[in-house]
Specification:
heterodimer; A: 2 domains; three-stranded antiparallel beta sheet; 11 helices; 11 strands; B: 281 residues; alpha/beta; Rossmann fold; seven-stranded mixed beta sheet; six-stranded antiparallel beta sheet; 15 strands; binds flavin-adenine dinucleotide; binds iron/sulfur cluster; binds FE2/S2 (inorganic) cluster
């Protein structure tokens, strides 16, 4: 894996010239929110590097909120800069679902193929980050084309894929190739891991969580369900939730629209039978899906520890408190 | 964009509509292109701009340019389907799911238990079995309906009885004055069948409650859990194992099913709750 170094000043120039040709999206802070915005000359200086976590999950670039999946559309090449490791790891499950060979989702595939992902290390974590509790390191290790770290006005880039290699060729004459990652990076990474360990010291691990969720009957689900308003925000912000509904339009067109098992009648069948009739059934289903069913189906838990659902919950349900309680 | 779009329906024409009962119709549809499917697999049918719903073809998979769908008016989309007059264009996606493992049935005695509109997929299955009738020891068919008028495929039964391997038994919950057959829920027919239940392959399709009582009775008669095939009905949207709607305790019915052995679904909430009812008795 080739590695390069470049000054921040030079890097900004590079981004400026690329953004004239290709759409680049990067996390930019607005008030208290950090989220992806398309780069322009005006906001390039405000990119938030190496900080958790963009409000919008990475999935929305490949699996948009709404998409006409019958009409043909041309996907343009684009760059996503600053994807955190948790969101990158979520692509494992999404790829298994949408790139499944038997039923290949070409809309998802085209977007994956046409997107260059520049992942980034997390040096500042947010209060609900808990990736390491689920065995994900807080820096890119998979599913990106290039990774980026910014320390003391120096940008370090590491190439992960052929696509990344090809992309970097556009401006490699402006970069300095290096043999090893600078030691500051290793130090920062260790610090982040340490912070996460302290922040989540009481959080059950994957195996404990699975056992807890599986054994819990209804009492704790009912307790938390009292605060749930079925808004579905937890699923919408979740980087691994993939549920959708096909909505029919004229001319046999179909809109693939994000959906959620937290909405009433998600599983309702004709004759009004509904396995998820109660809010507590749906709440339970969410955690079963993440920690029991997905591991059985795809060898992977469907929670990356990004913490977004905790932040997004209108009813102030803290998933980690809930998990700790079912594991007691 | 690649040409194989999993979301795009193929156009079919509605050639003819036959009224089977007061709330069930059979739609005869055709397309220019051949369509291959295995018996027990299902298709997603689009009504343009209205909605999509899953159905199992009721016609033989040996016929490739035409298909029959037998559909009960059960709600919004099926209600709109029932308003069709013939001549319309509808959309088909599929085939989806795993069908019946016909080859596993070779050389065995078969027991088919069906109720209501559940006869639709069973008709497809029976037509498939009859293509190779000599491969099976015997084909016992038990059909039930609420009243004699509620049977679908009324003209088909006399034809079925002509096959020497077929034994057809029918029951109704409520008889009319002409009914001379069995009265009672369809599972009572099982008492009339003398078979070696330890070795039989049984296929059940009908309303969810019938499916469960059917499975229970077959288990009591000694049928192996792995030889009881059930069709599970769940909500569905994509049919592709992606949208999550058909989840049944970690199984995607559209991909892992819709046909399951009892052994494969006995751990599900639905089955466990049903069998719990009888635990203490
Ligand atoms: C594998 C399989 C095979 C089947 N085979 C047959 C068969 O051969 N014959 C038969 O009669 N029935 C069959 N069914 C049942 C049939 O699919 C349902 O009766 C039908 O889906 C009911 O749809 P409805 O809109 O009329 O009912 P409703 O009660 O109105 O809707 C049922 C559910 O469908 C969803 N829904 C309703 N409208 C829309 C819409 N516009 N867009 C998206 N979703 C919507 C909703 O989530 C609702 O909860 C089968 C079901 C499955 C799963
Ligand atoms: S948690 Fe619910 S919305 Fe998310 S993937 Fe699982 S079933 Fe779908
Ligand atoms: S369940 Fe919550 S913490 Fe886990 S990946 Fe989804 S949004 Fe993030
Ligand atoms: S119907 Fe979409 S996953 Fe089964």
């Amino acid at each position: 894996m080739r590695k390069y170094s470049v000054s921040l000043k030079q890097w900004v120039k590079i981004l400026n010239s690329i953004s004239a040709e290709i759409d680049i999206f990067a996390p930019i802070r607005k008030d208290e929110y950090l989220d992806y915005e398309q780069l322009t000359e005006d906001n390039i200086m405000s990119i938030s590097y190496n900080k958790a976590i963009p409000t919008t999950p990475l999935k929305s670039f490949f699996f948009p909120i709404k998409e006409n999946v019958v009409r043909e559309d041309e996907d343009k090449q684009r760059v996503i800069l600053g994807a955190p490791a948790c969101d990158l790891s979520a692509l494992n499950i999404l790829d298994k679902i949408f790139l499944d060979e038997q039923f290949l989702d070409t809309y998802y595939k085209d977007k994956r193929d046409n997107t260059i992902i520049i992942g980034s290390d997390c040096y500042e974590i947010s209060e609900n980050c808990h990736c390491t509790s689920y065995n994900i390191d807080p820096y890119p290790k998979e599913n990106c084309d290039i990774s980026l770290s910014l320390i003391d006005y120096k940008v370090t880039l590491q190439v992960f894929s052929k696509k990344g290699e090809k992309f970097i060729k556009r401006f490699s004459q402006e970069l300095k190739e290096i043999n090893k990652l600078p030691p500051e990076i290793q130090k920062k990474r260790e610090e982040t891991i340490e912070k996460l360990a302290i922040q989540n010291k009481d959080l059950p691990n994957i195996e404990e969580t699975r056992k807890g969720v599986e054994k819990e009957g209804t009492i704790i689900w009912k307790k938390y369900a009292e605060d749930c308003v079925s808004c579905g925000a937890c699923a919408l912000v979740c980087p691994t939730c993939h549920c959708f509904l096909l909505i029919d339009k004229e001319n046999f067109e179909k809109i693939k629209n994000w959906d959620s098992c937290q909405y009433p009648s998600f599983e309702k069948v004709a004759g009004d039978e509904d396995p998820l009739a109660h809010i507590y059934d749906r709440l339970k289903n969410r955690y079963l899906c993440k920690y029991v069913h997905k591991p059985d189906m795809y060898d992977e838990i469907a929670c990356t520890g990004c913490g977004r659902c905790i932040e997004a919950c209108i009813g102030k349900i803290n998933k980690n408190e809930l998990i700790a309680e079912v594991c007691e | 964009m690649a040409e194989n779009n999993i979301y795009k329906p193929i156009k079919y024409k509605v050639d003819k509509i036959v009224e089977e009962t007061s709330n069930i119709k059979t739609f005869f549809i055709s397309s220019e292109k051949d369509f291959e499917f295995d018996t027990g697999q299902f298709v997603e049918v689009t009504l343009d701009g209205i909605g999509e719903a899953p159905y199992t073809p009721s016609s033989s998979p040996y016929i490739k340019n035409k298909m029959e769908l037998t559909i009960m008016n059960a709600g919004y989309v099926t209600g709109k389907m029932h308003q069709l007059k013939g001549g319309e264009t509808i959309g088909i996606r599929g085939p989806f799911g795993k069908g019946y493992p016909i080859k596993k049935f070779y050389g065995t005695e078969i027991l088919i238990l069906g109720g209501g509109v559940g006869l639709a997929p069973l008709r497809c299955l029976i037509l498939t079995l009859l293509e190779e009738e000599d491969k099976f020891k015997k084909i016992n068919i038990c059909f039930g309906a609420k009243t004699p008028a509620d049977f679908i495929y009324k003209d088909w039964f006399s034809e079925l009885e002509k096959h020497k391997k077929v034994r057809l038994l029918r029951s109704v919950d409520v008889p009319d004055k002409d009914w001379d057959g069995t009265v009672g829920v369809v599972t009572v027919l099982l008492d009339e069948i003398k078979a070696n239940y330890q070795e039989i392959n049984s296929i059940v399709c009908g309303p969810p409650i019938m499916m469960k009582f059917g499975a229970k009775k077959l288990l009591e008669l000694g049928v192996n859990e792995k030889n009881i095939y059930l069709s599970m009905e769940t909500n569905m949207s994509c049919g592709l194992g992606k949208c999550g709607h058909c989840d049944m305790d970690g199984l995607y019915v559209c991909k892992d099913g819709p046909v399951f052995t009892f052994d494969e679904v006995k751990h599900t909430t639905e089955m466990k709750e049903f069998f719990r009812l009888f635990k203490d008795k």
